Amino acid sequence: METTVLMILSLVLCHLSISAALHWRKALYPSAFRVKRGTPTLLNPSIQRSVEDANLLYEALWSGLYVDRGEGVLHVADEELASLRQLQPLEVVCEDILPRTLSDIRRLCHQLEQRQGHLSREDFERTVLTMVYTAEKLAQATPGHQKELWEDAFVQLYKAIKRDLRAE
Q1: What is the model's pTM?
Q2: What is the rounded CA–CA span in Å between residue 64 and residue 24?
Q3: From the DSSP assignment, how many helices (H) and strands (E) are in the chain?
Q4: Which keywords belong to this entry (predicted)?
Q5: Which domain holds residue 60?
């Protein structure tokens, strides 16, 4: 009887430890690992691979990003800048990877709260872009409960980025 109880207890503990280990390895942006039809074959695309890429991303952010009301996708406002080949991964990230619904963004915020340690370079840049998207949606929202939810999501994303920058 005691061995059966100990065996069941050890199986439960083993299952819990495996579940916990898998939970912490869970991807923040799972769509980055799915190749979609019509998308360049970029698996887990990243925008910043060098200092020049980081500067180009900064320039794109500075020139302005906007949310297309029809598709709900984040676009670079400057057409000449948007046409650069180096910004192709930004287009893929904005169209295929970033969460666009309030519920998906709130889910991301919860996962960021639970996460320990630093974000990967890719997750950090996607979180910043999600914050930019959230700010655009917040600006478009009409006053009321929905706007408060977008504000809360924006603040949570800001706190997650700030916490990541401060983590040692």
Answers
A1: 0.74
A2: 34
A3: 7, 2
A4: Signal
A5: 28-166
